[in-house]
Amino acid sequence: MLKKDKSEALSKEFNEYYPAGHSNLRIPMDVTEHRLFIAKSDGTHLTDVDGNEYIEYNGSMGPNILGHKNPEFVKKIVEYMENNGTAIGSNLLFSPMDVEVARRLTKLIPCVEELKFTVTGSEAVQSAFRIMRAYTGKTVIVRFAGNYSGWGDNVLGGKINSNKEEVPYIDFVTKGTPETNPYYTEGRIPWANKETFLIPWNDFEVLEETFDKYHDMIAGIHFEGIVWNHEGLYPKPGFVEKIRELCDKYNVVMCMDEVITGFRVGIGGAQAELGVTPDLCTMGKAISNGIPISCVGGKKKIMDYIRGNKVCVPGTYPGYGLGMAAILATLDELTKNDCAAYKKVFKVQEKIMDGLVSIADKYEIPLTITESNGVFSTLFGIPGGRRRLYMNEELEGFDNSIVTCFQKYMQDNGVFLMFGGRWYVNIAHTMEDAEKTLQAADKSMKAMKKNGFRYVAE
To answer: Is the whole-model pTM more than 0.85?
Structure first.
């Protein structure tokens, strides 16, 4: 039985000050009535204020690719802080690190020739939209259903317009429950939908039809190369190539969102794994191991529209010193010994994934696992084990209530998971962590099966 007295007391006071917590969607994130307050984090382990310990696979929702308190990372950040301020100049003063970061990223990321730094993923996306519109002289950005592009009015949530005779502007639905419409928000500008088209993922026919019919309106297309904001759906063979072909044909900027995949699925991101180079990409999260920084990177001919202040992307923190130091410290660890960290991560990840499939089979619980290096999703309710999925239709049977039930039992058994069934594995996870995780999973699935996939507190 987990202790909870201190967390319960802190939760009560916290909730008086912070409406809906820090980062809020309509998706339930907590699995307990109280919030979890962490007193200590080290590697892959968390200790809360009540003394409960957890192995965690949340990774701060993706950024912590080195784990908590990585010794080499901390050493370099401390060295930087002992000699510098957190921010140096915001385009008034600069650092040699600025040049070193650019040198490295242009060598590692296929599409990157020039860069523009921001702080959050949402900022990077909106910056990319502005650059794409300036470069083409057109206005609309094409997106795919299930892809997440931040919290801006023009991108958060919505669904595909069901009327195929109308211009395919995103439909920002104003009704529905958190389960059916989790990204709905009040306070949105009513005409924000006129900035974005929304079309189905992996539908060659609709993609081509949209470009053929509306290319004079389309400035760019922004999408996740591997859709980790929607259960890890991969592009069908040839789909990203078709996007590339249509963008070239119609003077449309191809922008790949690498906020999750960049530096996580591989040092070159999803674009390197898929073998198709976009014009621009947006990056964040794992680029700096939890120190907030993001960027837009891409081809010189497009990024040069920022030169001469034709496109303004201002701010106090772009390129701030602590963020740049964090990027260099992170890249140092990820690129050691010919990027050996990625092989280590996947070895641990594969043990966990195979173990989860085996345990699910043992208790006759249908489970599919979708995967990339460093991230995978447990899709309860769908049989099949480890495999790639491509379409929404293949998610039929996925039961998020079972995922939540599993998450609750796992937390009771000392494993902290991210909501929705997504797991982030980082270089601090060990085979011992994997063994303990699978032991917890066995206990959790046994309890789930026994209690009819309902959580029953012991």
So the answer is: yes
